[in-house]
Each structure stands twice: as structure tokens, then as C-alpha cells.
Amino acid sequence: MRRAALVLAVGVAVFPAHGRGPADVLLGGVFGSKAVLVIDGGLPQTLAVGQLSAEGVRLLAAGESTAVVEHEGAVIHLRLGEFGVRAARHEGGGRSFSVQADAQGHFFAPGKVNGVDVEMLVDTGATLVSMGRAHADRLGLNYSAARRVAAASASGTVGGWVVRLERVEVAALRLQDVEALVLDSELPYVLLGMSFLNRVQWQRDGRTLRFARQDD
């Protein structure tokens, strides 16, 4: 029987101080569907997915070297060995939300494409929501029958296919029939491009990116 490997490193997410809530959460390790967290400088504790700590931190997901936790409405993505915060905080009764930049200034947000959970990187330089073939295969997209195009990338021109996504969800926002690009290469994230961003309201304020529905 194969046993899951224990991955150890250190990642940190800093939460705003609210009452007696934790000041910070460190991701100390991942073991299968469990994560080792150090909350507010306390002793390491292991949480299973869905479990809530005494400090009010809930583990939402655990990956090979990542974890997603929730605290007071903020969804925080942690990565082993990386310092930074990736948060989507819901506001206005779920009609809007904000995302905090990570240590490198990138904006990540948890999302869904056709009902499947994906990690998204906001990219205002991408004309379309974009993904690599591995993501498209996981989503079950029949991209090989779609229109073939050539797309410019940082490494040169790469082939791809233009497809229509049934629905794209990012935190509180949900759009249907979103045009997207499947690249004939691999991307670590789904790029949240302008085919989504042009249909919502968004504004950057320093290290915070705020989103709202067009009718808000």
C-alpha cells in the first residue's frame, strides 16, 4: 500500500486582527488531505479538510504543496516555502469581493470553470481567459474541434484553440458563455483575462484589487 509523503516547509498568511482572531497562520506541512498549521505562533496542529480550529481557521483544501484556509470570510491560499497572502474577501452581501496581492505583486483568486475548482491568476494583459492543455483536459473541453489560432506569449508565438466556457466563477461573481483560449502548452494557473474582466467592475488600489458585478 502506497503511503502519502509528508511535505514540510514554511508558508505564512497574515490576517487582519479582528477581536481575538489569529494574527498569522503558517503552513508547516501537507500530508495527504491534511495540513499542519501553526496559528498565531502556537503549537503545530493538524487539520483535515473541512475541520475548524479553535481559533476559527477552517481548512478548505490541501494539495501536494499548498493549502487553502478560511478565516472570517477571507479565503487564503498558502504555498509551502512562499511568504505572501492570497485572499478573496467577500463584501456587500456576496455581490463583490477583494483580492490581496501576494509577495510578488500577483493577484490570485479561487475560482471555478464549468463547476471545477481552479486557481486563477488575474492577467489584464491576456485578451481571453486562458489555460494550458492539462487544465482543458481536466475540464473535459473538446478544444481539438475548436477554431485554431496563433497566440503571442512571453516566449514567442504558440498555437491554441478558441473555445466557449459554459460558466466561470470567481468568488462572488459568476458569468456564463465566456470566450477562452486553450494554449498548446502548459500553464500553472488559469489566467483570468479580459474576456471575463471586461464584463465585471474592477479597480486596483495599491495591493488590493476590488471586483463587483456590473449592475452594482
From TrEMBL:
Q: Which GO molecular function terms does the record list?
A: aspartic-type endopeptidase activity
> Which Pfam family is an annotated match for this chain, by its short name?
gag-asp_proteas
Domain of life (superkingdom):
Bacteria
A GO BP entry:
proteolysis
Per its UniProt record, what SUPFAM superfamilies does this chain match? Acid proteases (SSF50630)
Query: Which NCBIfam families does this UniProt record tie to the protein?
Result: clan_AA_DTGA
Origin species, per record, is Thauera chlorobenzoica
Protein name, UniProt field: TIGR02281 family clan AA aspartic protease
